[in-house]
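Bench notes, afternoon.
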Amino acid sequence: MEYEILGGNLPVAVCKLQQGESMFTQSGGLGWFSAGFKMSTNIKGGIFKGIGRIFMKESFFMTTYKCNASEGLLAFPSNFPGSIITYDLKPGESIITQKSSFLCAESSVTLSMHFKSQIMIGLFSGEGFIMQKVTGPGKVFLDIDGSTVRYSLQSGEIMMVDNSHIASLSSTVGIKMVLVKGLMNLFFSGEGVFFIELTGPGDIMLQTMPIKNLANCIAPYLHFKKSKNVGSSDPNTEYDA
């Protein structure tokens, strides 16, 4: 399979498949495709994995596209401004990602839930207690908020990360929660109560603009005024921004 990432800050993964190759995505994840594909929708991995995907903010059903022509094209657009990153996983190799980041993958890739080792990380990190575990073999495409920065941590090397900026990391990377020190820092730094300590060895991918941070930046500029008929379909309802 060959692929390219197009679209700049509104990216799309365009994948060229050969006959017999297949990819899967969540419901509604496909943008466009060429003729010659067989489409099949099911609960990939069974009902328990389907339920697990709901907790990971993915869809219960997955759709697989198999190329029956000599070659074909599939396009998977991102859901919001950001980046699409790729991993070519070896058999048994896994990465840990944030919820809702899965875009598409080759059919040999599997998705499962991953629980953070410390429950307090999940409660206060801004990403919840459950993350995703993606296991190879095969190529996987992740939909990431904003731009991305990759670091390769050596054994014992530490990176302190602000809440919600973890996009993905190697399964070998250690993760724990560290309380912000100092009362002034704790209450007035704006960095929250905890940092996340990531310890090598392994690669980490950090995202520059988590979608909830973007929403918080935009929110003060959105002002809505409704007509007196609240909740009606009255065409005279006014919305001012």
